[in-house]
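BUG: 3D viewer hangs when loading the predicted structure for this chain

Environment: internal workstation, default settings.
Expected: structure renders.
Actual: progress bar stalls at 90%.

Input used:
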Amino acid sequence: MKINRLIVALGLIVTALTFSAKAGNKVAGPKIVSLNGTISEILAGIGQEANVIGTDITSNYPESMKRKPKVGHNRTITAEGIIALQPDIVTGLNSEVKPELQVQLKSAGIKLVLFNQEFTADGTRKLIKEVAAAFGAPAKATPIVNKLNADLAAAAQLAKTGAKPKVLFIYARGTGTMMVGGEGTSVEQIIELAGGQNAVKGFTDYKPLTPEALVAADPDAILLFSSGMESLGGVSGLQQVQGINQTKAGKNKKFVTMEGELLTGFGPRLGQAVATLSQKLR
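Structure tokens produced before the viewer hung:
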């Protein structure tokens, strides 16, 4: 008798689960806070966006990510804002999540899923696959990588046309903060993928822009984030910066702007970013 009741009960459970699946109901996944725009974009691509309950301010793609609660900029985030959202998982890049923040989150019982990022096409493919695998959807990486490969192939054809322009990237937050991107930076990598060459050599990372260095570099084009150009007051403001008008770029008004996360994110839209930059440089 007890066995019969057990069988009936199991049957009811199976029926309920089957009905739930047919109705499109799904068990809620882990609550995720993403601290990197590229990771957020990949999570959306593999179907995890509904589980993302908060992000850093660089997570702006797809458009719907802008409406997620923000916990600050990935390099200056504090634990309190994250913990307040009560996530199960916090994800991001090892290079951006400070060790002390990692300790605080782990102490709060929050799981950390962090990745390393390489600013190359292969590095982007690897990151997409690793994120998909870590969040239980390895098969969903395949169509994303396939589209990336197709976009990169198309962009490579554009990059082959014409000479290699010398491009100077300026990171600007008003005239008080202006830095130029050196060797090994993500922006140098995408300039080269787009068929250009970095106008400055001899140093890594970023260093302050000086009029002397600007004139010596004499770039064919000057590249900025769209937000950076806006912080200077537009093209007219950039032209007021000492040394700009003495360069080929300044004389020809060859100023190129792109959205920051697209330009340097090295995510699923890398091929699109390379193609866009190639077209703008030419």
